[in-house]
């Protein structure tokens, strides 16, 4: 579907994607203008629609692409041989902090995307988030040493409770950022996440 775009030189691809990220972050989906995107990218609107059918297609492609870029780097850095669940979770948190500094524009786009309320893309976007969360959760627990958990616990419920806690924390942070019209303070986020990790470890390990 996007073969024409992928046939472009890497430099031109990056220029178009960076232009789209900039405009979507500044304006949000509904108010983002393809006129602004093509002006920023230095191409014609006809060429943009030659590569992407419309603004929605471009937005969803951009989200998928950004996820792919970040997660490819993320997977390279995670040591899957680490079988201690909370050590792996802690290491993943540190890697996310590193990636945040490596891809600041992409994470700003993610931040805005998570707050997006446009009816035009909401269902498509939520479907992508659900699929990504499910696959990430499966991968997170792959190969962990379950013997370290207390014998009186239902591990499936333990896992769900932790996932719900972190989802709730993320939602609280996004709501606060949206209410105050501020960028997310990621140092504060990761510090709070680390505190939760330590709390869960004490509660669920033998």
TrEMBL record:
GO molecular-function terms, A-Z: DNA binding
Domain HTH tetR-type: 10-70
DNA-binding region: 33-52
PROSITE patterns to which the protein is assigned, alphabetical: HTH_TETR_1 (PS01081), HTH_TETR_2 (PS50977)
A single BP term in Gene Ontology: regulation of DNA-templated transcription
Keywords: DNA-binding
One of the Pfam families matching this protein, by short name: TetR_N
Classification via InterPro entries: DNA-bd_HTH_TetR-type_CS (IPR023772), Homeodomain-like_sf (IPR009057), HTH-type_TetR-like_transc_reg (IPR050109), HTH_TetR (IPR001647), Tet_transcr_reg_TetR-rel_C_sf (IPR036271)
Protein name, UniProt field: TetR/AcrR family transcriptional regulator
């Amino acid at each position: 579907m996007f073969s024409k775009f992928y046939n472009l030189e890497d430099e031109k691809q990056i220029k178009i994607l960076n232009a789209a990220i900039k405009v979507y972050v500044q304006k949000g989906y509904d108010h983002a203008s393809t006129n602004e995107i093509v002006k920023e990218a230095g191409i014609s609107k006809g060429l943009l629609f030659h590569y992407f059918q419309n603004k929605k297609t471009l937005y969803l492609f951009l989200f998928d692409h950004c996820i792919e870029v970040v997660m490819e780097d993320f997977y390279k850095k995670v040591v899957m041989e680490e079988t201690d669940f909370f050590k792996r979770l802690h290491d993943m948190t540190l890697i996310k902090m590193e990636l945040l500094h490596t891809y600041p524009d992409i994470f700003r786009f993610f931040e805005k995307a998570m707050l997006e309320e446009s009816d035009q893309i909401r269902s498509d976007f939520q479907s992508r988030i659900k699929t990504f969360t499910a696959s990430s959760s499966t991968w997170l627990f792959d190969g962990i040493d379950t013997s370290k958990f207390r014998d009186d616990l239902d591990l499936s419920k333990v896992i769900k409770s932790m996932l719900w806690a972190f989802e709730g924390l993320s939602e609280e942070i996004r709501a606060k950022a949206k209410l105050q019209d501020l960028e997310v303070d990621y140092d504060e986020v990761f510090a709070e996440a680390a505190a939760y990790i330590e709390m869960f470890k004490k509660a669920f390990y033998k």
